[in-house]
Design a protein that fits this description.
247 residues; alpha+beta; Aminopeptidase; 7 helices
Length: 247
Amino acid sequence: MDVKTASLAERPDKAEAVLGMADTWPEFVINDPVGAAYYGRIATELPEYVLFAEDERGEVVAHAFSVPVALAAEGRGTLPARGWDEMLLWAFADLRRGTRPDTVGAVSVVIAPHALGHGLSARMLTAMRDNARDRGFREVVAPVRPNAKHLEPHTPIAEYAHRVRADGLPHDPWLRVHARAGATIDSIAPASMTVSGSLEQWRRWTGLPFDTQGDIEVPGALVPVRCEPERGYAVYVEPNVWLRHPL
């Protein structure tokens, strides 16, 4: 697929198309409260870290969001167990306080459903790395959501993340794209994203009954969702894999 990439800082006219692009996220994922509060702000407050690809007709077919963060700030230093959520909280706290960032955190790479299978995820990852390098950063860190882990919700994330093929590359396709770009596994973020809701909300998000005590397998979830019918709620705690990309 022939595409051109740019940032929203360069092309603010594309903001609506980028934010409105179709995606394949499970509905419960977009109900993470941290993501709901901060994800949309990246495009307006950090447009130089929002990259997109448009095809020959000018249609946005992929985008990549990232944020600058002060990883070496006091009280930090290591990649957080709360992964994706914590990185967003740090980034916007740094922005509010005027703290100088030292690292770029990858937030998402999203491909429009009709454009899947054309290698755009690798291209957008490369564009994100190049953008960070051009801005003087020496590393990109990524709390990665392995895109085939949902097929094995009961497999421990550490076991899954370190599984490799005969050629030594990761078993998971998205982890494999990162590895080919030069990334290495740093650690596991066991509570990278937390989504809690009433049983009625979970029924609406998933179409499942959510009337049984215990772990519920949900399509698209990397681990089972914990259901507590007597208490009237269910909670999903998603693990991610922290990867480091030296630049």
